[in-house]
Amino acid sequence: MRTSTEARPLRVARVALTREQGRLAAQIQLVTNRQGRGDIEAERVDDLSRYGFSQAEGVKTADLELHVPQDVVSWIADQHRCDGQLEAPEERDPFWLHLVKPCAALGAVPWERFVQPAIEVPFLRLPDVLPEPQRRSSAFRVVLCLATGPQGLGESPSAVVRALLDGVGDTLQLHVFTDQEDEAPLRGLLRDLRVPALTVHRSSAGMDTEQYGSENPWLSWIQRELAEHTVDAVHFVAHGCALGDEGAILTGGSPGSPGARHTHVVQSGALRDFLIRLGALAVGFTRPPGNRSDYGLWRLVDDLGSMRAGPVLLHDPAEAREVNDLAQGYRFLSSAVPARPPASPHLVIFAHPAQVADFDLTRDVQELIDMFRPSPEVRTEFAREGTPGWISTAQRYIEQSEAELARFKRSSGQRVTSETEIAFQQGRQVALERIRAVIHRHTENHR
């Protein structure tokens, strides 16, 4: 990639839901951010039916095969080639996809699968909110959740572990959660893989599941087991599920109840809160063989990626044993310094631009990022080995709350806001400043 002391232009395909002659349509604007301003270079509008959607009554969106029309792909690629970059594809900056919310099911379209091969550079999704998440630079602790129950995973678990090993390297600390009946074969599978630090958590038939209440029992079990640890990433190998037009993943029955045929549904809001409680920076998903609902999985990932402050990854392997793309994805996510993301049609990645390089953002976005930067003491604390779990959880809560506050500040200029909304957000900002002060005092005392 080029080296420069100046911020690089950020090139974005901005996709929004609109209406054309009374019918729902997708508007695509190719935007370049330069010197704090976003310039529209090209624009087009296409009926949603061209993406595989149906506007007929009684047709379930989740049953449709969504795609990007070939002429739309060619148009994006042609415009991208004319943007003035002279480097070879492997040296050119990433291209970003911004799905403007609310965009309904447009987020479930597998844009990367169709567009990335045509543009030949990394194709990343831009979160709706951009406060930069704080990353750790010591050991990288990953939770691998294999809780699929009767759906099965095939060879996916071993492929994911190999990818994590290759991508993260010697700093990997892996915690595996799986069904009791799958534990023995999994241990055999992992025996020959040289994971630097590996823990396979064992569910017990006598586990008390009533304590979980209405929460997903698998997420509660993981949180309880790792209460004293700081987690960097959680990776799910899970089947997707469609709940009407909404997305979700499925976990198996309660841990410690082998053979249970029922499943639990987990939606994006529950996952977001779970990741905050663990203090996790990133979350990843691998599409298993015979996935029950591609629509449900893509929709969940898009909802989660747009709402949370932190990277979200979806691995869509061409075949179960394919690990190279996922390894490159985690090499990028686990880097403590800006790094080049992989160029792959098999990866969906939501990431902050600063995780790649210094890009030119619009002035309003940059002002919000500068407002929400953590103190140097907090950055130093995250660079240490063994960051206290409560600090990680508090920092993730702050980042998520600041992301929501940033979303409000950006949208308030485009709509009428009530006095109640303004008072609530002002109170939230004061509360966040007090929480930041507590963390600052703690980290300063431990220098």
Class by alpha and beta content? alpha/beta
Question: Whole-number average pLDDT?
Answer: 79
Rounded to the nearest angstrom, the distance between the terminal CA atoms is: 36 Å
What would you call the quaternary organization? single chain
Compile the SSE list and pairings.
Elements: E1 8-20, E2 23-34, E3 37-47, H1 70-81, E4 95-99, H2 111-119, E5 123-125, E6 140-146, H3 156-168, E7 172-178, H4 180-191, E8 197-201, H5 217-225, E9 233-237, E10 240-243, E11 246-251, E12 264-266, H6 268-278, E13 282-286, H7 294-307, E14 312-315, H8 324-333, E15 347-350, E16 359-360, H9 363-371, H10 376-383, H11 389-412, H12 419-445
Parallel strand pairs: 1-4, 1-16, 4-5, 6-7, 6-9, 7-8, 9-13, 13-14
Antiparallel strand pairs: 1-2, 2-3, 10-11, 11-12, 14-15
Helix pairs in contact: 1-2, 3-8, 6-7, 6-11, 10-12, 11-12
